[in-house]
Design brief:
Blueprint: E1 5-8, E2 14-18, E3 40-45, H1 61-73, H2 78-94, E4 97-104, H3 107-117, E5 120-127, H4 133-153, E6 158-164, H5 172-185, E7 189-193, H6 197-207, H7 211-217, E8 225-229, H8 235-244, E9 247-250, H9 252-257, H10 266-271, E10 276-278
Parallel strand pairs: 3-4, 4-5, 5-6, 7-8, 8-9, 9-10
Antiparallel strand pairs: 1-2
Helix pairs in contact: 2-3
This protein binds zinc ion.
The site of zinc ion has 6 residues, from loops.
Amino acid sequence: MRNSSVSIDDSGTIRDMGITHGSRKDEVIDCRGKVLIPGLINTHTHLSMTLFRGYADDLELQQWLEKKIWPLEKRLTGEMCYFGALLGAMEMTRTGTTCFVDMYFHMEDVARATEEAGLRGILSYGMIDPPTHEGKEKERKSSLKLLQHVSAMKSPRISFAFGPHSPYTCGEETLLWCRKEAEKENVLVNIHIAETRGEQAKFERDKKSREVDYLDKIGFLSDRVLAAHSVWLTKSEVKLYGKHGVRVAHCPVSNMKLAGGSVAPLPEMWEAGVPVGLGTDGPATR
Ligand SMILES: [Zn+2]
């Protein structure tokens, strides 16, 4: 519809569209030459990684993570993550993105940035299994701490999700704990699945099973799972997604940059009824 206006009342509710008749007291925002669309949703990101943009270019995922990103992330503080998230929020606002799904550390600080920026965020603490039992307990506590923090904020725009990083960095116990707790809290489980060919090959060597087959076998898959990437899936694995109602965050730019070797099999996913959204992944991966 061209040459139209939208009338919004003080509560933020749209009251009229088309040729609207406002009063002189109305605040008028001139949007000539622009398009008015519903807010876009970024279904997978690590917002604070705006701080790492341009760092560690031209590497494949595993080298990029292990040699460059993970060592640097150990030195991040809450304040750094807050400012990184604020910058990311500004960038998303400029492109019409009003909602995002995030996984990172110092997420209480990311929540503060999200609230101040006026965006909607589904926030998860990225869990990676340490070798010890105590370490695993600590990761769970960090996740539950974020859950409590988000509940205490009572913000209608901020919600919590569990964030086991991936099936190759989290063991069965952690994955199933997230599954169970997500059911209890009625929230999503945000996870990376089958991102690169090398990851899938190593997983098959170690576990004698492909990633999605394994996740199906242990009872992890459900309609609460938001699976980022999901590039290296067989047709039968895509069907398992469809059967369990798994949703996909498709991140093609990140897959190109980190040499994932391909992109998610979208036609097969659509055929199997898998809901697919677009994600940017972290700003250092694009
Ligand atoms: Zn990611």
